[in-house]
Amino acid sequence: MLFYVVLLLLGAGAYYYHFRINRKKIIERLEKVVQRKRDDLLKNIEEARRISDKLDSKRRDYIGNLDFEQLKKELQKGSVTCVEAVRTYFHKAILAHEKTNAVTCFILEAEQQAEELDEKAKLASFVKPPMFGIPLSLKECLKVKGYDTTRGFVQDAYRPSTEDSIQIEHYKKLGLIPFCQTNVPQSLLSYNCSNPLFGTTTNPFDSTRTCGGSSGGEGALIGAKGSLIGIGTDVGGSVRIPCHFTGIAGIKPSKMRFAHRGGGASVPGKPLIDANDGPMAQDVKTNVEFLRNVWGDIDFQSDRDPYCPPVHWNESLYSSEKKLRIGYYIDDGWFTPTPALQRAVLESKKHLENAGHTVIPFHPPRLTDVIQWYFRAVCLDGGQYVLNKLLKDIIEPTIHFQVTLWMVPTWVQRIFSYPVSLVFPRMGVLMKSLTRDTFELREAYAEIEAYREEYVGLMMKDNLDVILCPASIMPAPQHDIPSKVVSGVSYTCLYNLLDFGAGQFLSDFFQRIFIVFPGVVPVTTVNKSDEEKLINEYPETDKWYQITKKATIGSIGMPIGVQVAAPPFREEAVLRTMREIEIAITGK
Ligand SMILES: CCCCCCCC/C=C\CCCCCCCC(=O)NCC(=O)O
């Protein structure tokens, strides 16, 4: 017996030794890549600075102070040129980058694209496209010809995309000029924004706090006024959480409203929970204008990707005067949000009631189950795909906790989940979430499908048009917190789980009720009384609550958004609701 124990220990030791040596080699090799990439970025920024400096600083300030609508008009009139717009936004993005480390690369060809557009504009026959000359920032994972999409993995550096994705092609056709790429967390499966290649992106309001993720670079850049409009992706909150953390507005349309051919994903091959791209901007108005133009011309995407139905912008839904019926909740029953987030929903409710809408309580059912199905379906191979990539890479320290969880074999997690449940029941739920086998995975898929019916059934029973709820559980926390409180995505991941696969859109009934489309609009900032309530009333019943409470203390002044969600192909109703909240708050 002793012999076998010794043999086993020796075997384990040898395996561990081999593993360490191998990891050391990988890290040494990749550290050189990191250095090269960082040197290249410095040169790239200097080149962008040289380009931006060609424009007189007074002119740059003038153009830099125009909002989206004003810049769009001036570009259309010809009183601002595309080259001037690009040079201005190189300048503004450099300033934002110096503050937050948001940019991973400037797309230097933007200047040339701008020059070509300006040349075309001189021809009498040329009809300017609707978003002529507007600079567009892009999350690093979106495919642009000639540029990397590393998703924060060092191993994927210097493997540039060979083509633009269909969406990028479309944006260029509409006159937009992609001018920079922005940072992401390693793997995209986190709501912070750090990776070993480009480092940590910080929140423009407080550098000790995260800008959110995974479209965190976009959040930081737009929040710091370095871009007017950008594109993120969202599989669990990655557009909405950074918007909420950085005080901007953004939306995650239902999957089929964009073409996905040529796009990338955090975990390819997960059928029920898929990432959608979505715009992010300083206000709702800009998102509306952007989507009005993109969906007004959606045939461009549908023609190239038959899985993208040609559903056009629905102006009558957006501009309708019919009063809405809105369901709201301030606590999903899984994770009580901190007081400012609850107040933001209640204030928005009042604004909407003042505008004549009916706002009634709505309770999303069984969030504990939702959390389990979501993690099971996102990590559909038990996290193996991401873990394999991570083990071939330098692992980002701010996601160490999350990676450690993934490394524990599923059967071990399952055994320990029972004793853990006795002292920390919510952790027990998470520890039972990763799938043991395909039998369990199929079951989870079936549950998700049934849940979709249940959820929309509840909405239909009360004849609800949209749902109003918190955007997250807390204001922006410190950089390492998201990986420690990964279950805090319940407010956003619910609406990814309710998304829909191809095919069902064929029926009008399904189109109306099944896919849910959420967006986030900034509403308020954390105040003193929120902090007092947090200290005196916020639960401390388990470790996640304790971490959340501690991370939220000291967040006075941080932005807070709310989330609005609605059934598929009714994105315009969500935008209308968000815009009405925006008008009530800002008066414009
Ligand atoms: C012992 C318990 C094991 C559970 C381990 C869970 C590990 C965490 C897995 C997934 C985290 C999901 C967080 C989602 C954050 C938002 C991500 C997002 O929207 N990404 C966008 C994209 O992928 O494009």
Overview of the structural elements:
The chain is of the alpha/beta class and 588 residues long. It has a single domain, classed as Amidase signature (AS) enzymes. The protein is 49% helix and 12% strand. The protein contains 24 helices and 15 strands. It has an eleven-stranded mixed beta sheet, sandwiched between helices. The protein has a two-stranded antiparallel sheet with strand order 4-5. The protein has a two-stranded antiparallel ribbon with strand order 6-7. Helix 9 packs antiparallel against helix 24. The longest helix is centred in the first third of the chain and has 51 residues. The protein is globular, with a radius of gyration of 24 Å. Bound molecules: the ligand CCCCCCCC/C=C\CCCCCCCC(=O)NCC(=O)O.
